[in-house]
Design brief:
Helices cover 3% and strands 27% of the residues. The protein has 518 residues and is mostly beta strands. The strands form seven sheets. The chain has a four-stranded antiparallel sheet, with no helix packed on it. A four-stranded antiparallel sheet has the order 5-6-7-8, with no helix packed on it.
Length: 518
C-alpha cells in the first residue's frame, strides 16, 4: 500500500494478486488472499463469518476520494478531512499493484473489524487505511458500518489501471456483490455490481485469458444444512471487462452443483502453468452420506479457465494433488504466490507430519503443470499442528527473493505466533533454523496484550508494502489487545527478518471504530 506526496508517474511494483484474483503473466511478487475461508484482513476474535447487515452508516475519517461520487443510494454519509496526493494508473495489467488502490506507490489496507454489545455482534465495520512513506496513516482512512462482511478481493474490474475492492458475501443463498472503484485519490463510494441477486462471488481472476478480470459465481444451495436434498444451483462465469455501471461484458452458465448435491464453500485460484488462464480448486463441504451407496459429494474439484468462459475439469491439476504423501493429513490450501521467483504461481498447502506438528508444503508451478517441475518443499516446526494454517508469500527481507510468513494460530492456547522463513538463491525456503519468529510476548512490541492469551497473533495474506521501502509488511488485527478495544499492528519487513522494534500500531478508535467489550 503506497502513498506519495507528489504526482509524477512512478514505476509500478510487480503485480500482486490474491489467490482468487491472479493476473495473467503473474510475476513473483504475487501474494494471495487466503482461499481456505479467511478474509483479506483480520477480523475480531472469532472465526465465524460476520453477520448480515446493511451499509447504512458509511463514514470516513480523512478519506481519499476517487473521482465522481457513486450514484448508489448506499454511497451516502461521506465525511472527508484529509487525503494523500493523487497517484497514477498502471500502464498495463502486468504493472498493476493490487495492494495499492490509488496508484501512488504505497500499498493500502482493507479489512473488517467487529463491534460487540452485551456479548452480541452489534456491527461489522469495513476499514480502509492508506499507506505513505511513513506507513499506514489512520487519518487517511475510510470506514463503513453495518457492512455485510463477505469475501474481499482486489482486482482491476474496469481496466482503468486502478485496483478496485470487491466484496462478495460468503453465505449460501442470494447475496450479489458490490465494488469500491479505485482511483487516483483512493476508493469511491460503494456501488452494487449489476449482477443477478443470487450471485455468490467466490473467486476473482482472468479465467478466459483475455487479460481482463472475471468473477466466479459459485451458485448456492437453498438448504445447505440438508445435504440429502438436491437443490444446489450451478453458478456462472461473469466475464470482464466490467463497465462502470457494474455489468460484466458477458455471462456464461457453469455446472458447479455436483448434480445438485453441493456448492463450493471457498476456492483457491492461480495460473500454475503460466498459460494465461487461471485454474481453480473448488472446496466443498460435504455432509455425512453413510446411508448412501456412493458418496454424491466430492470435497475437492479441480477446474481450469477456458477461452469460451467455461470452467472445464483440470485432470492435470487433479493428478498433481493426488499424491498420497500430500493428501494424507491434508488440511487445506492456505495461499498462492510465486515462492521460487520463476514467474509462475505456486500452491501452499497446510499439512501435518509424522510428529503431529504442522507443516507448509510448497507445490511449485511449472509450464507442464503444477508439481511437474521442482520437488515439493516442506517447512515444518515444533509449534503444534496449527503451524502453516495461514501462510503468505512476499519479500519481507527486501533481497529480491520471496519469503514465507507462516502463522501458527493455535500456538499457546490460541495466542498465535509468526515465523518468517527467508528465501534462498535457488528459490527454495531456507532451513527453519534460519527463521525469525514473533508472538505477543516478544519484548519490544507496542500495546498491552491480553494476559489470558487468545491474542490471535497471526497474519492473513496479502503481505503489503505500506511504506514503499521494497520490503513487504504484515498487518495484524489483535482483537483482545488494549483491554479488548483491539489494536492494529504493522510488522515491517527488514533486512534481518521480523524485528519487534520495527513495528507500528494504531487502534480501531483511530479510524473511527468503537468496539464494546464483551
Amino acid at each position: 500500500m503506497t502513498a506519495m506526496t507528489t504526482t509524477p508517474a512512478i514505476p509500478a511494483k510487480p503485480t500482486r494478486t490474491t489467490s482468487r484474483a491472479p493476473a495473467a503473466g503473474t510475476p513473483w511478487r504475487v501474494t494471495a488472499l487466503l482461499a481456505a475461508g479467511v478474509l483479506l484482513a483480520a477480523t475480531a476474535c472469532t472465526a465465524d463469518d460476520p453477520g448480515p447487515g446493511t451499509a447504512t452508516d458509511r463514514r470516513t475519517t480523512a478519506r481519499p476520494t476517487a473521482g465522481t461520487p457513486g450514484s448508489s443510494p448506499k454511497a451516502t454519509g461521506w465525511r472527508t478531512s484529509a487525503r494523500p496526493a493523487a497517484g497514477t494508473p498502471a500502464s498495463s495489467p502486468k504493472d498493476l499493484d493490487t495492494g495499492d488502490f490509488n496508484g501512488d506507490g504505497y500499498d493500502d489496507y482493507a479489512g473488517y473489524v467487529r463491534a460487540y454489545s452485551k456479548g452480541q455482534w452489534s456491527a461489522t465495520h469495513l476499514v480502509i487505511v492508506y499507506g505513505s512513506a511513513k506507513g499506514l496513516r489512520p487519518e487517511w482512512s475510510q470506514r463503513y458500518t453495518d457492512i455485510e462482511g463477505g469475501w474481499l478481493f482486489r482486482a482491476d474490474l474496469d481496466g482503468d489501471g486502478h485496483t478496485d475492492l470487491i466484496e462478495g458475501k460468503s453465505d449460501t443463498g442470494a447475496s450479489a456483490a458490490r465494488v469500491w472503484w479505485g482511483g487516483p485519490r483512493g476508493l469511491s463510494a460503494p456501488e452494487d455490481l449489476a449482477v443477478p441477486k443470487d450471485t455468490r462471488l467466490l473467486a476473482v481472476a482472468d479465467f478466459d485469458g483475455d487479460g481482463r478480470t472475471d468473477l466466479l459465481d459459485a451458485g448456492f444451495k437453498k438448504r445447505p444444512d440438508y445435504p440429502e436434498v438436491r437443490d444446489a444451483t450451478g453458478g456462472r462465469m461473469l466475464l470482464g471487462p466490467f463497465g462502470r455501471e457494474g455489468a460484466p461484458a458477458r455471462t456464461v452458465p457453469l455446472d458447479l452443483g455436483q448434480d445438485g448435491w453441493a456448492t463450493p464453500g471457498h476456492a483457491t485460484t492461480g495460473d500454475f502453468d503460466g498459460d494465461g488462464h487461471a485454474e481453480v480448486l473448488l472446496h466443498y463441504q460435504c455432509g455425512d452420506y453413510e446411508e448412501e451407496p456412493t458418496r454424491p459429494c466430492h470435497p475437492l474439484e479441480t477446474r481450469e479457465g477456458a477461452a469460451d468462459g467455461g470452467l472445464p475439469a483440470a485432470p492435470a491439476l487433479e493428478a498433481a494433488l493426488s499424491d498420497p504423501k500430500l493428501w494424507s493429513g491434508f488440511d487445506g490450501a492456505t495461499d498462492v504466490g510465486d515462492a521460487d521467483a520463476d514467474g509462475l504461481a505456486d500452491l501452499l498447502l497446510w499439512n501435518t507430519i509424522s510428529s503431529g506438528d504442522g507443516a507448509v508444503r510448497v507445490l511449485y508451478g511449472a509450464r507442464a503443470g503444477l508439481g511437474t517441475g521442482r520437488d515439493t518443499a516442506t517447512v515444518a516446526s515444533d509449534l503444534g499442528n496449527s503451524f502453516g494454517a495461514r501462510s503468505a508469500v512476499g519479500d519481507m527481507t527486501g533481497d529480491g527473493r520471496p519469503d514465507l510468513l507462516i502463522s501458527a494460530p493455535s500456538f499457546r492456547n490460541h495466542d498465535g505466533r509468526l515465523t518468517l522463513v527467508p528465501g534462498t538463491s535457488d528459490g527454495s525456503p531456507a532451513p527453519i533454523d534460519g527463521a525469525t519468529s514473533m508472538d505477543s510476548t516478544t519484548e519490544g512490541l507496542p500495546g498491552t496484550r491480553n494476559p489470558y492469551e487468545w491474542n490471535d497473533f497471526t497474519a492473513d495474506p496479502p503481505l503489503l508494502d505500506v511504506n514503499g521501502d521494497d520490503h513487504d509488511d504484515a498487518v495484524l488485527f489483535l482483537p483482545l489487545y488494549e483491554k479488548r478495544k483491539g489494536m492494529f499492528l504493522v510488522v515491517y519487513g527488514t533486512d534481518n527478518g521480523l524485528a519487534p522494534d520495527r513495528t507500528a500500531h494504531f487502534t480501531p478508535a483511530d479510524v473511527g471504530v468503537s468496539r464494546t467489550s464483551l
